[in-house]
């Protein structure tokens, strides 16, 4: 696995794609919490992450983890909207004897994460100028600051893994 990742990134710098996703999301969530980039709202303790879930998340810092996962998806996909992220974070609904179907996740917490990341300067809107002269919004993407922050955390993770 290490050799395969080295072939992908031949320039020598470490990016988010060079470290395991789970480790990166945990480290970036700690970074967001430590830097106070995201404020935990009042409703975070009682809300579910999807309509088909039975309970709220057990982890008290679940919103930081969700925001880190949203930022990770924006890094990988380059641009994405709320509905695309809802589909990604969705899952199957257990319907008894009927076949399971896929349902999207709740959009409120994804929108909240995107707004907080945008306020921190890590995420920005993608706007285009159409032929009519009107501006069109085509989702969200990471800013240069967001990309460099994520790559810096990935570099720290890679250095820690080399020490061990």
UniProtKB/TrEMBL annotation:
Give the molecular function GO annotations: RNA binding; structural constituent of ribosome
Protein's UniProt keywords contain Ribosomal protein: yes
Per the record, the domain of life is Eukaryota
Pfam families for the chain: Ribosomal_S19e (PF01090)
Record's keyword annotation contains Ribonucleoprotein: yes
Q: Name one GO cellular component term.
A: cytosolic small ribosomal subunit
| Record-linked SMART domains | Ribosomal_S19e (SM01413)
Query: SUPFAM superfamilies, alphabetically?
Result: Winged helix' DNA-binding domain (SSF46785)
Q: What is the name attached to this protein's record?
A: 40S ribosomal protein S19
């Amino acid at each position: 696995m290490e050799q395969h990742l080295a072939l992908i990134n031949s320039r020598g710098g470490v990016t988010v794609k060079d470290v395991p996703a789970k480790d990166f999301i945990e480290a970036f969530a700690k970074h967001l919490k430590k830097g106070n980039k995201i404020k935990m709202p009042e409703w975070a303790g009682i809300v579910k992450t999807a309509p088909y879930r039975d309970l709220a998340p057990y982890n008290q810092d679940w919103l930081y983890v969700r925001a880190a996962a949203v930022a990770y998806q924006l890094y990988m996909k380059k641009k994405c909207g709320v509905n695309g992220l809802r589909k990604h974070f969705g899952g199957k609904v257990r319907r008894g004897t009927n076949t399971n179907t896929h349902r999207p996740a709740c959009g409120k917490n994804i929108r909240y994460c995107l707004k907080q990341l945008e306020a921190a300067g890590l995420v920005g809107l993608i706007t285009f100028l159409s032929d009519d002269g009107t501006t069109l919004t085509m989702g969200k993407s990471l800013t240069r600051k967001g990309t460099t922050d994520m790559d810096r955390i990935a570099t720290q993770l890679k250095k820690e893994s080399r020490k061990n």
